[in-house]
């Protein structure tokens, strides 16, 4: 089967929902690849793998390192690299330089960046120069300091228009799809109905054309989790259980056993 392209994702508008998850490392990417249409190397990597308390400290080199790892594992899904804070906002030229590195140094075939109306010119510049762009509007984690938190958007109708304007602007600029994060269902439904490109929701209801979550969140890696995350597994507990068993068996000398132990050649000792 051939690799999914940005064009293929665009053509999934209004059809079977588009399945997306984040990926940061090779072995997980290989497992995700079988089931997902799109893998996002999210700048959430800074929080999920490095313990940062926001995505602001992530840089392009970190994204490229993880992008390369993901591309080694993913053969079918479209791999999208998040452009990190500070790598694209200054100018469309800066954005292109960063995007060109993100694609040429990893093997990924699209980038994502946060912003609506204010990023439209940049999205147009990139998408007309060989860089498919996944836009990201609604709650934008890189703007946490301006917005003042990670609360949902569009929960009163007077908040709707700027978000609708953002969604229309990124579509008009040539984004192949848009991530819509942290908005009330009626707004998500309205934007999904109005746009001709797929709307991929996170905390944005079932009305969207697809869904994305942070893989570690949906697998139950962390103790706390936001309202919009369903825990499809409890890997945090599974990991802790395995480590506890190992520690107990090492301390009681019940591991390693015979089957884990090398013998001398030609001997049973
Ligand atoms: O960084 C990230 O993981 C994202 C999401 C859309 C999940 O931007
Ligand atoms: Na992100």
Automatic annotation (TrEMBL):
Pathway: Cofactor biosynthesis; (R)-pantothenate biosynthesis; (R)-pantoate from 3-methyl-2-oxobutanoate: step 1/2. Mg(2+) binds at residues 43, 82, 114. Gene3D superfamilies: Phosphoenolpyruvate-binding domains. It catalyses: (6R)-5,10-methylene-5,6,7,8-tetrahydrofolate + 3-methyl-2-oxobutanoate + H2O = 2-dehydropantoate + (6S)-5,6,7,8-tetrahydrofolate. Keywords: Cytoplasm, Magnesium, Metal-binding, Pantothenate biosynthesis, Transferase. Its cofactor is Mg(2+). The active site is at residue 181. This is 3-methyl-2-oxobutanoate hydroxymethyltransferase. The lineage of its organism: Bacteria, Pseudomonadati, Pseudomonadota, Alphaproteobacteria, Kordiimonadales.
